[in-house]
Amino acid sequence: MTVTEPASDQAIVALLRARVPGVSTDPAALAAHATDRSGAGAPGRPVALVRATSVADVQETMRLAHAHRVPVVPRGAGSGVAGGALATEGAIVLDLSAMDRILSLDPLDEVAVVEPGVVTAGLDAAAREHGLMYAPDPASGAFSTLGGNIATNAGGMRCVKYGVTREAVLGLDVVLADGRLLRTGRRTVKGVAGLDLTSLFVGSEGTLGVVVGAALRLRPRPQTTLTVAAGFADVEDAAAACSAVARERLQPSLLELLDRATLEVVDRAQGTDLASRGGALVIAQADGTGAHEEVEALLAVLGKEATWSELALDEAHAAELLTARRLALPSIETFGRALIEDICVPRSRLAEAFRGVEAIAARTGVAICSFAHAGDGNLHPIVSFDAGLAEVPAPVLEAADAIFALALELGGTVTGEHGIGLLKRDWLAREVGPESLAVQADLKRALDPHLVLNPGKAL
Amino acid sequence: MTVTEPASDQAIVALLRARVPGVSTDPAALAAHATDRSGAGAPGRPVALVRATSVADVQETMRLAHAHRVPVVPRGAGSGVAGGALATEGAIVLDLSAMDRILSLDPLDEVAVVEPGVVTAGLDAAAREHGLMYAPDPASGAFSTLGGNIATNAGGMRCVKYGVTREAVLGLDVVLADGRLLRTGRRTVKGVAGLDLTSLFVGSEGTLGVVVGAALRLRPRPQTTLTVAAGFADVEDAAAACSAVARERLQPSLLELLDRATLEVVDRAQGTDLASRGGALVIAQADGTGAHEEVEALLAVLGKEATWSELALDEAHAAELLTARRLALPSIETFGRALIEDICVPRSRLAEAFRGVEAIAARTGVAICSFAHAGDGNLHPIVSFDAGLAEVPAPVLEAADAIFALALELGGTVTGEHGIGLLKRDWLAREVGPESLAVQADLKRALDPHLVLNPGKAL
């Protein structure tokens, strides 16, 4: 057999075993690495799982895949919710989660160099020891990996002040489709030598290369973080209050909005009585040296239309105020399966987005709980349904489609921080248009001519 | 004549005139649009100048250039210092500076949509009316255009806190090499639908497309900005003090360092006596709600090793403290021609960088004044020489080369914020390596198969 022709699944596995340790074809292992948190089933059966422990493992895997036109699905913790890591037919699943070392952390340069399998919260904890933080904080940060965060350009609650993953990535080591190792970017804060390849790989969902290392920017950890919460009669008053925060040029480090449906589900699951106190909840934080002054300003602005508002006097109280936000998704998932949607609109349109989603819920008869990173206009409408159903019911899909249409109608995007993955591909085309799709396809072919990297996803 | 074959210069001009208004072949106009602030001569004579006033003008020009394989050199104000806008032989010079309208400025969404010829400081002034700012502030901001800033991913003094141009660009309208109009990105703060084409065009120095519009992120304008200055015995003490600022996790909104040679030239040109007060000067600012507390902390940290330090008590005093920095380059240019270099090193290596540049000046006998955006590790060694000389003297070129080598040796880059342009192309290869060059060439070919966009630059 030459190394440039398609081979049978068995032959592929044999070739893999000859080159890479950590190859498994155990059905249970394959099944465990075929899905993610999207809740969707894998569209096909993979031929093998490779648990990479070195850059060389990844290079060998890609060389073989490139030569034999075998699809490769890279994955980290499988915490994605858009289906980007779902296994596809005949694919090699390439698990990077065992490459989990923090290789260096320079407290003066405020740069960490990591392998892709490092857990997000683990890096943040390591940074904390030096008075630093890793700013991007996706909700899945306790188990998501940095490689996955980079692949999806993950967001989180702190992004409203500190930016998303892209802003934290200085440089990458990437294994290309043909196994070449590419270093992008630099270890300095600034630098403009050559094209910005780093940003091209960030958010590319495993379609252009496999991230095997990253130089990440850390930031000073604020010594003071203060929390306020305010209840509102309805979601429109709450959204108006969030707009007022922007209009007053305040810069909260967190600004979250929960609608009535969310509060009611949290109450049901947790035994709280949030919904009795108002039809919408806003939680805000200010941090840094100006935190006291800023949180007073936040309280004044939010308090204007609020039915109640309070400032957390200590950390326990602050944690309590944040509980509803933290438990929103787990509470919803207590009662059913959830499609976690993720639209982003210009923040001046946030009230319209909430109203539009409520109308979609009423029209389709589907349960939708919405909460938002309000400071960014990033809304998560969670469409839930009976977990016992074999398939996603038609009205649920109809509601999801209507939510995407709403996002575009309001000048927004179908995904603020989760990615296109498998589930939103049709909508990508509607959002970005044919010229952009054509350019993206050209770039994809330039980097992965045999289209082996995560085919059928993202692009 | 078919439209897919090379044509004579005369034929090209005739075709241009038939399709686009604003075509000039006047030798004086061509000469005026052939150079930039690099001080280097244009490597060739252009065939025509197109003063674009619409997207359609740019599309028509590119369609023609693509069909006839005519090089196109896009330019804004010509304020670049790396030679990116120098005219080349047989090229159409495409001047975007007349497309200078701010199309919209949304104070609530904090987004401005602009044409490429808007002057940087003009947008900042427009934003100021709404309590906002356009954060990137290149030294040339009073005359540079936003299109040029985007093409070079321009930096500035505020970048240490607010990020470079890339962080301010939400989306672009780009005319591709073949005349297609591409819209990238979005008008929302967050969004991850598809590849990050926006970042690919930012900093690409006119080699991948012509930016004809941009959605730019504005930020709240700090209501308070406080300024301190401190003198040091030498540049090493000053660099150590800047390191201490980082170590204490302070986040100045400006942190500049000037060496003795710079202070002496400013004194000579302006009649000041800065050098008599110390061998190095550090200027720092803090802004925002925590400014008072932060500036006190800055003063305490800088004051430790300083020979003197002071806090500006009013705006006039602050302006006076900043004068030396503002006048550094003009002062140097009073006495000769200047090569404006632009290396960036991990900020922990800043003292070594200053020391290394001093050693290069001593070894080559060339005058080098250095000042730095110290908070970013971004050092500008200004190599100056007799303006009457017809050619750059060999020791000056030797010094420049040694400075680039030093940057790489210290783990840095040959350009922090000015770009590769024409002058640093050899060094790009040494910095990024063959894999990166190959990938950049592949991407270039994917977007500009006939290599008509700013050939010979940047890549």
From TrEMBL, chains A, B:
User: Has the keyword Oxidoreductase been applied to this entry?
Assistant: yes
Task: Write one Pfam family the protein is assigned to.
Answer: FAD-oxidase_C
The prosthetic group or cofactor this protein requires is: FAD
The cross-references to PROSITE patterns, in alphabetical order and at most eight, read: FAD_PCMH
**The FAD-binding PCMH-type domain, residue ranges:** 42-221
Q: Does the keyword 4Fe-4S apply?
A: no
Which keywords does this Swiss-Prot/TrEMBL entry list?
A: FAD, Flavoprotein, Oxidoreductase
Molecular function terms, GO-annotated: FAD binding; oxidoreductase activity
Protein family (similarity comment)? Belongs to the FAD-binding oxidoreductase/transferase type 4 family.
Provide the protein name: FAD-binding protein
Organism listed in the record: Nocardioides flavescens
